[in-house]
Every structure is written in C-alpha cells, then in structure tokens.
Amino acid sequence: MAEAPRVQEKSLHERITSEVEGRILSGEWPPGHRIPFEYELTEEYSCSRMTVNKALGELVKKGLIERRRRSGSFVTQPHAQSAVLEIHDIQREVQALGLTYAYRLDSREVRKSTAEDRVMLEVKAGAQVLALTCRHFTGDVPFCLEERVINVSSVPEARDADFSIVGPGSWLLKMVPWSAAEHRIRAVSADRRVAESLAIPTGTACLVIERRTWNGQTYITHVKVTYPGDRHELVAQFLPSQQT
Asked: DSSP string spanning 118-141?
C-alpha cells in the first residue's frame, strides 16, 4: 500500500510533462509564451508543487522551455542548425526541431528581369523571371522570410507550378537538378518590411543566407532567406588541408 502514492505521482508527472509538451509542439503555446506559474499548474492538476517542478525540469532538459528568475517559465525560441555547404529544405529544418511547420505564399509575379536579376542569374535584358516572396512558420510564429527569383528560361515548369501549397525551395529540390551552388552569409538589422514579415522589432539582428544554384552553365535560381538571429546558426565541418 505504501508504494501506491509514488506510482500515482509518477504517472501524474508524466501526464503534466506530456500535456505541456503537446501544447508547445502543436503551436498552441508558441515561442515566447509564458507557461502557467507552478502554483497555477498545481491547482490545475491538484498535485504537489514538487510534481509540477519535476515535470517542468524535464521540459527544460528537452530544451522546450526556459526558466527566468522572477518571471516564470517560457517556451524557448526554435534554434535551427544547417550546414554551410549544403542546401536544406526549410520544412525539414522546422520539423527536425519537433515543431509544427506551416507555409504561406505572400506574393508571386512573372516579370522582366531587373538589373540585379541579370547580375545574379546572368540573364539578358527583357528575360522573364518568376519572383516569389513567402514565409515559413513554426506554428503561428514566422521562422524565416524567403525571397526567391527563378530563371524561367531554365525552369519553364515553374511558371505553372502551384507554390501556394508547396514552397519553391522544396519544389526545386525535387524537380530540378543542380550541379553547383554558391552561398553568401551576412548579418543585417531588420528594416521595417522584414520586421513586419517576421513579427520582430525593427532593428533586430538577423542572419541572411543568399544562395544561387546552377546546372552546367545555366543559373536556376537566386534566393535570400532571412532568419531572426537568435533562431538559426550555421555549422561547418572540414578536414585539415593537405600540405605538399
């Protein structure tokens, strides 16, 4: 009989951990959301404060929440990693964090190339390109802003592709072979347009990854992806150079 309370408390601790984790991973409690205070969870689950503290401790270990002195516990910001020399699918980046992924196409336009397009894609004046602006989300929180231009002459199928459902990056990786890519990485402060798109204050430090890919001698696409600086990092693995 003496063992029964411990079995019951363990079961309740697991239930609290599972339910709070579910609310986070589903996006119901987005990054930055304050978790109910311990005394509130104690009342909700009719349990001891020690049980609640143990459950929240497990979530801290998993990296899902962080505790702030005198402020309470908050859902952590997603922090993705990607390799510098690889092309990653943003949907997979988000899902690798165990978060709910969502996508939204903000604008789509087939237009004549600008001077900047001609430099990036090496197309002639008057050549047509497909310009796309879209956002990727974790739940309801913007994860990154994607601004892409596709060379229509090298990828004519893109003109009729439905990018309202599938992001252009995912579509290109599946549909169009590429032989080489170039990355440019820089830090910027979010201007008003970017800040509104990412729901962050103007001037927030952001990480910008610009990439263009080509197949043979023909450029396929140029893309600029902007992440809030505290949500993404780049990782490079390399070997010592061979000295002769």
From this structure: HHHH---TT-EEEEEEEEEEETTE
- Considering just the CA atoms, what is the radius of gyration of the chain in Å? 23
52-58 long-range contacts, Cβ below 8 Å, gap at least 24? Answer: 52/16, 54/13, 55/13, 55/14, 55/16, 55/17, 55/20, 56/20, 58/13, 58/17
Tokens, residue 147: 């601004």
Question: What pLDDT tens digit does each residue of the chain (244 aa) get?
Answer: 444 444 444 578 888 988 998 888 777 888 888 899 989 999 999 999 889 988 888 888 877 888 887 788 888 876 554 444 456 788 888 887 778 899 999 999 999 999 999 999 999 998 999 999 999 998 888 999 999 999 999 999 999 999 999 999 999 988 888 778 888 889 999 999 999 999 999 999 999 999 999 888 889 999 999 999 876 666 655 556 444 4
What does DSSP assign to residue 187?
E
Please state whether beta strands 80-83 and 232-235 pair in parallel, antiparallel, or not at all (unpaired).
Answer: parallel
The CATH fold assigned to 4-75 is: Arc Repressor Mutant, subunit A (1.10.10)
- Comma-separated ranges of CATH 1.10.10.10 domains in the chain: 4-75
CATH code, 80-233 = 3.40.1410.10
| Tokens 């990485």, located at residue | 185
> 3-state class of 96 per DSSP?
helix
